[in-house]
Amino acid sequence: MKKHVLLTVVSLLLTVVWITPVAAQDTGSISGTLTDSTTGVPIGNVNVMARGVDVDGYGMTYTRDDGSYTIHLLPAGTYEVGAGNWADRISDYVLVWWPGVSDELDAGEVTVAAGEETTAIALATQIGGTVTGSITDAWTGAPIGHVWVDVEKHRPYIYGDWSAWGYEVGADGTFRAGGLSGEYRLRYHQDGDYLPAESEPFTIGPGQAMTVDLSVTPAYGTPLATVAGTACEVDDTSTRCWTPDPDDPEGGTIHPLAGVAVEARTPNGTLLGTTTTDPWGWFQLENLNPGTIIVSASPPAGMRMVGSLEYDLGPNEGVWDAELTARRLEVRHGLTSRLAPDQIGPGEQAELIIEAVFAGTAGSLVPFDVTDVVVAVHLPEGVDYVGHVGDGPYDVASGLWTIPRLPYMGRARMTITVTAAREGTFRLNAEIAGSDWPDLSATFGDGRGDDFTSETLEVLIVEPAPVEEAVIGGVVWKDADGDGVRDPDELGLGGVTVVVTLDDGSSMTSVTSSDGTYRLTMLPAGSYTVTLEAGTLPAGLESDDVFVVELEGEGSFLDADFGCVEVAGSLFWWIGGTAVLVLAGAFVFAWLMTRKRPTPGTVEEEPTVKEALV
Fold first, then answer.
1. Structure pTM?
2. I need a surface site. Which of 263, 344, 382, 504 has the fewest CB within 10 A?
3. DSSP letters along 431-483, please?
4. pLDDT of 220 above 70
């Protein structure tokens, strides 16, 4: 302890320290600046040191308010220059070496000539990490003050792998260490009253803060608290390991638990000791720190411990009749599911509603919860995920629904919206895939769904989409008076071919029945042109009508009617079944004059195109 106090006093009182006395004319100096590497602001009142490389010399000073420094009376030679958390243990700045490295093995060399000043040795550092904590008595938990604790930095390239910075612990048992960056451990060295102790290694970076506590064991005496007893299985008829035989006062039965791990801890969780039961269920925990001791065991598969044991023991005290009891449990997880609706069309949506329930246990003294229950939802190929809402997260990629906690007799629900792009019958399945407590009646994740309390498989029927059909129809008749309107005495023409042409050039036909009617059915929506095949008309008849029909959905157009008129300029006489065409010259001349020579200002008549939008 004295060496730490002495170093602190020396570092506070002296501005310059050197090891080998030399004459002033044989020395030089080093000067420069120290700034904050994150802000560029000068840093004052921080330790700067020069350590000889090829000369037995060492110098130290503190930066001025403007961040400048000068180390005087350095023997001529080469030096390593550093600033930050070193001998000045109050500094919160990370130790840095010129020309800006954190490891002294990488430090550059600064040359000092006799009678000269080496200038412009600039350094930059930053606020380091801070560790606070307390040192306490492992037996009593009381704080230990006015001792020293080392914060050791991991440096595998040096002998011993660790280098230490010592910090004084206050009267309340607390300490503070700053300027840290790297991997460290807290270490307490033997100080007469307490045994050495060290913490687990920890890593801290600039600007971070953390707490590390250390519990040290008294060096005098040996704690002799002991807890021994039996671990056994009990049933509904007894809560004790030993069941007396009513017919034999000295007899009884016991169901020991062999190979069970038993441990002792303090109320704050510190492990005091562990052991394993022998074939007769016996365990013995020795050399435990006195105080409050909590003893517990890890139950075998299919069992749950009834509880833990707590004792308040002093040195050399013990308990020899401890009983850790366990009960055999039969856990029931359950699932129910339903589809709404269970019959849809392609592209329509349905909801798969799954409910998970912790159905309880047999042989349990008190109800308890199960945690981390995982339900695997199996969506078959062809059924697509749309969305979900429910209790706990659902991972779409794996199909796993996780329920963090499921209370005794509690329920959790997940609704998954699905759709199918094609028709067919799809089977959806879900099962319990995991839990912190096994189900003795089911095998998790086997795909069988034997953990269901209702029908395992849900069937989704997707019906074919209805085909939208359209119809085009009408009548073909002989328009005797040529007025375009069918009169009651004007008969239909049978055997005439009606041609329906699509936009892509393909066509379909229908032949008129004896009364002249026709119909084309099961037409998809689209645009059609309806005409007559001229070669199928009776001799001497013609029709120049054309229908352009736009059909939408299931619309129909049944008014594509064709009135056929006699070919103009023909006369027929039937003599003995032979047709003789007599052309009257005067009639022909008159017809030619009216048809072939249009009156000025008129245009020749085009075939009639009739349009319809249905």
1. 0.36
2. 504
3. EEEE-SS--TT--TTSSS-TTBSS-S-EEEEEPPPPPP-EEEEEEEEE-TT-S
4. no
